[in-house]
Amino acid sequence: MKIKELTLIPILGTIIFLTSLIKIPSIFPGAEFQMSAPISVLIATTFGPKIYILAGLIGSFLSFFSGISNIYGIIVALVFRLGILIFILLVKNKNISLLFASSFGTSLSRIVLSKLVGLPLISLLIPALPGMVISGILAKLFYEKICSRLLGFKILEEKLEV
């Protein structure tokens, strides 16, 4: 692993953690929207699976060790991250991935959560629908705005050339 990756991964992990603290509340339990969802899609799409999964692990463990998340939250977050990666690797279309990877990851994580806590899946999926839509739109907008600025950095140029 290159030195640039070793410094980039913790920074991205911290960004994932910090954006997970930004939540848009909802009147329905479990329907709040976390800003880390579109940021996760952006990181996965821009930097690739290895950097994203390592950064995601750091973000999840920061959340756990700071007392913000519990073991169920870590499991759900890891399933969400794997769902994003699976979607991106299967679809291979950047625009479609930006719009729908978060929805796929959220759906997959809600399936696992329903099994963990014994709640009906529909009661976990319906409240998440607004957040899924917001996440797809924001991931696309963030990619268009942020990625063009990141192209000036050497690490992204190296990643895109490989």
TrEMBL record:
UniProtKB keywords: Membrane, Transmembrane, Transmembrane helix
Membrane-spanning residues: 6-28, 40-65, 71-91, 124-143
Superkingdom per UniProt: Bacteria
Protein name: Uncharacterized protein
Originating species: Peptoniphilus genitalis
